[in-house]
Structures are given as structure tokens and as C-alpha cells.
Amino acid sequence: MARKKLIAGNWKMNGLLSEGVDLAKEIVAEVKKLGKPGCEFLICPPATLLTSVKKTLRGAKVALGAQDSHWENKGAHTGDISPAMIKEIGCTYVILGHSERRADHGETNEIVAKKAKAAHENGLKTIICIGESEAERDSGKTLDVCTSQIAGSVPEDSTAADTVIAYEPIWAIGTGKTPTPADVEEVHAAVRKALAKKLGKAQASKMRILYGGSVKPGNAKEFLSLEDVDGALIGGASLKAADFLGIAKNAGCC
Ligand code: PGA
Description:
This protein is α/β, with parallel strands linked by helices. 42% of the residues lie in helices and 15% in strands. The two termini are 18 Å apart. Residues 10, 168, 173-174, 212-215, 233-237 line the site of 2-phosphoglycolic acid (PGA). 2-phosphoglycolic acid is lined by residues 10, 168, 173-174, 212-215, 233-237.
């Protein structure tokens, strides 16, 4: 079965209310022009914008996601947001274990797996992020790091219906630097193998694995045409509707 490509925008900590709503409106208008897009679109604004952006997305073929959620549904966790809360707002996806959260908030594989399990229990789809640092790449540890992140961060009972993996080399995020397409394909193939070991071949062959890290309209085709690349997780370029849509168009998937 062909895996439908997912074009996901991670807005990170960007956008005040009017900017975020305007951007969502522009994206909706562009996606509408496509009629029946062959790929799936997702935007993940900061938590403060989810409710307003959700209204903008009414009737549009653009899904809404959050950038993080806790492993509990309620309780004494100041500043955190629970999976039940984002589900209630209308999110269908949540990004978990982004390298910025692993670095800024000390999130371990174990924490990411706990969060993913809770998100799944609440009917959310997860985008679980993995990826090596520059030092790990330079010392030849890329495949080991990525496969052990899969082993540790993906809950045992995950399925292709509730889980997407995003491979994002940390050194490629927001830097303009990217691995070669051959390097990306090598990692994605290894990740799929690690998923097969953990979840069985049937789920692994259906599960989408996104590439993320300095994806732009200009390099979209070289990454998104690779055998095991099933879409993109886009940071900087997702903040401009033309670039976000340009990635999907140039990749030939919408
Ligand atoms: P970037 O970010 O596209 O700005 O490199 C990607 C990400 O961190 O998800």
C-alpha cells in the first residue's frame, strides 16, 4: 500500500495571534486551489494559537497539531498541556521528542515514549522525532543513535495509523545544511528496519517516515522522491504559505 505523503509545518515558538491566523488563512486558500491534494497537510502552531487557527481550518484539508503534550491528562504540572486538552481543541496530531525539546527540557526516550502512549490513548496521532547531533554524525554513530531512539521512544503498541516518525539530523535544523539524499535514504531504511523489529513488518512498511532539517522548495524533490521518505517536517519554510506549499508542489506530491 502506498504511503500518503505528509507535509507538516512546525511553527515552533513563532506567531502572535493575528500573524498566526493570517498565515493559516493563506495556507488554507492555497490548499483549496489544489482541489483534492494527493498529500496530507498539517500545521502545528504554538499552543496559544491552536483555538483560533482551528476556526480558520474549518472545512479545509489541513489538519491541526500541537508541538508537545504531557503524559498525564491533568494534574499538578505547571505550564504543561495535556493530550486531552489539545484533543478537545481539535488537534489530530502532536509532535513529540523534537530535538529542541530533548535539548531544552531534558526529554529522554523514556519520557517521549510515555508522552506518545498517552497521546495515542487520547486518540491523537504522534510525530515522534529522532536524529543525531553533528558530533555523533562525525564519529559514525548516526545509525546507532537513530535506531536506539526508535527502540526507546516509540511505544510497543504503536501502529502506522497512530504514529509517524520524523528523522531530523540536529545539525541540519535551521542551518541550511542538509545530508545528501543517499545519507537520508540510508537512515530512513535503517529506521524502517528498526520499526519492523519493534512493531512487526506489516506496521513498519505502512508507517510514514518524514525527513526534516532545512527543507525548502528548492531541495524538496531530492528528498521527497526517495523510496523511504514519506513527507517532510518543516520549520522555517513553513512560516511562509508560498514556501510551505512550494515544498509540496515541487516534490510533486499534491
Ligand atoms: P527547519 O526545522 O526546517 O527550520 O530546519 C525543522 C524542524 O525543526 O522541524
